[in-house]
Design brief:
By secondary structure, this protein is mainly alpha-helical. The chain has 11 helices and 2 strands. Strand 1 and strand 2 form a beta hairpin. Keywords: Heme, Iron, Membrane, Metal-binding, Monooxygenase, Oxidoreductase, Transmembrane, Transmembrane helix.
C-alpha cells in the first residue's frame, strides 16, 4: 500500500527525509550512553543502513514485503518503515494468538488510530484522547457493543457481499495463458467501502454505485493523508 501511494511524490521528499533521518541517527549515536561493546563505526553503519531500508520501503514496499515473507517461511518477520517497525504474521496459529490477546496488550483500535490518524483526517477527532468525552464514548459504544451484538446478523450477509464482489472483480479480468493476475489493493478498497456502507448505512447504500464510488475515494484519500502525516513532524502536520 505505501509503495503504490507514495511512489510519485517522493522525488523531492525522499532525499530530504533521508538526510534528516541520517542527522538524527548520528546525533543519537554520539549522545547515547555507551552501554554496548560494539565498535562505533559498525553501529553507525548498522543504524544508517536500517534507516535507508526503512525509507526505501516507501518506494519498493511490495517487493520488500514479498521477499521477507518468502524468506520467513511462515514465521513472523519485521519490516522497518520510516515512522515505525511492523511485525507481520501470517500463520493461523499467530493470528489466533493475536485475536486472543487482551485489549491491554494488543489494541486493534489503537492500531487503527495509528493507521488512520483521525486527529488530522477526521477534522480534529481523536478517539483515544476523547474516550471520556461524547465523541469517544459514542465510538466505543458503537464498535464494542452495538456492532458486536449485531455480528450474528451482519456476518452472513457480509460474507455473501464480499464473495460476490471478489467473484465479480475476478470475472471482469482478462485471462492470459489460462491465468488471471491483478492488484489486490484496488479490490481491498472496494471491499472496505462496500462493507462500511453495508454495516453503517444498510444494504441499499452498499449497492448504490455513486455512494460506493464516494466511499472508495474517501478510503484512498484518508490513507494518502494519514501516510503523509506519519512521515511529518507534528508541528508541520498541524
Amino acid at each position: 500500500m505505501l509503495s503504490s501511494t507514495f511512489s510519485y511524490p517522493l522525488d523531492t521528499a525522499f532525499p530530504a527525509g533521508a538526510a534528516l533521518a541520517l542527522v538524527l541517527m548520528l546525533a543519537l549515536l554520539f549522545t547515547a550512553p555507551r552501554t554496548c561493546d560494539t565498535p562505533l563505526v559498525p553501529r553507525i553503519w548498522s543504524t544508517v543502513n536500517s534507516r535507508i531500508k526503512a525509507w526505501v520501503f516507501l518506494l519498493n514496499g511490495r517487493k520488500i514485503m514479498q521477499g521477507a515473507y518468502i524468506e520467513s517461511q511462515g514465521a513472523p518477520f519485521y519490516v522497518d518503515v520510516p515512522e515505525n517497525r511492523y511485525c507481520v504474521v501470517s500463520s493461523q496459529e499467530h493470528i489466533k494468538e493475536m485475536d486472543a490477546a487482551p485489549q491491554s496488550v494488543l489494541s486493534l483500535l489503537a492500531a487503527a488510530e495509528d493507521l488512520i490518524q483521525p486527529k488530522y483526517t477526521m477534522k480534529g477527532f481523536n478517539w483515544v484522547e476523547g474516550r471520556q468525552g461524547t465523541e469517544g464514548a459514542t465510538l466505543m459504544r458503537t464498535l464494542r457493543n452495538d456492532l458486536t451484538d449485531r455480528l450474528p446478523e451482519i456476518l452472513p450477509e457480509l460474507r455473501l457481499l464480499t464473495s460476490a464482489l471478489v467473484d465479480e472483480h475476478f470475472e471482469s479480468l482478462p485471462s492470459e495463458n489460462g491465468a488471471k493476475v491483478f492488484d489486490v489493493f484496488p479490490l481491498v478498497r472496494r471491499a472496505i467501502a462496500h462493507s462500511n456502507a453495508f454495516i453503517f448505512f444498510g444494504k441499499d447504500f452498499s449497492q448504490n454505485a455513486e455512494f460506493i464510488k464516494a466511499g472508495v475515494s474517501m478510503v484512498e484519500h484518508t490513507l494518502v493523508i494519514s501516510d503523509t502525516i506519519r512521515l511529518l513532524p507534528e508541528i508541520i502536520a498541524e
